[in-house]
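User: I'll paste a sequence; please echo it back and then give the predicted structure.

Assistant: Echoing your sequence first, then the prediction.
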Amino acid sequence: MKRDYDKCLAKYLDQYTPHKTKRKAIQWVLTTTKQKIANKDEGLESFKKSVLNKVGHLVIIDPEKMTNFIKTYFKKDEIKMAINKLSDTPQVQLVFVESFINETKGMQQIDDDIVEIYIKLLAESGVKANKKKILKELQRLGRYPPKCIEVCEKVRVKDAWAYLEEMRGTREGLKKAIDLRF
């Protein structure tokens, strides 16, 4: 299986493989990546592509390690690809994006589209506690992408919606914020 990273990862992540062995897949990914970088191996990009193909499985096994791994070894566009690859499993995508945001030092490193995805996932998760968390997260992130207003309006998260209208700073936005609060 040398150099056939997809088959190797598939073997590690097979549904019949015990969880303990699956956790070894994470360690194998970390070790292999470090070796490839140290040896300036031209197979690094192919390996990263294989990891991207299995990112959903790997994130479920250990969200924190995989988030740190992807932040460390992947470029911004590859990080966005990883997030998008998880779109079929919104709960896993939320875990990954939330972990990514929480592990990122300096909020300016987080693109608006990642903030939008995060707010949308919180709003559409069906979990009441996640909806209540939206305002706090927007305030913490200090980012107000325009699509977040649409999301908050759509799911009727009035406190966050009012806050975003206020932050927009337009006359119409301020009027809307007052209407939402009263």
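The chain is about 75% helix and 0% strand. The CA atoms of residues 26 and 65 lie 8 Å apart.
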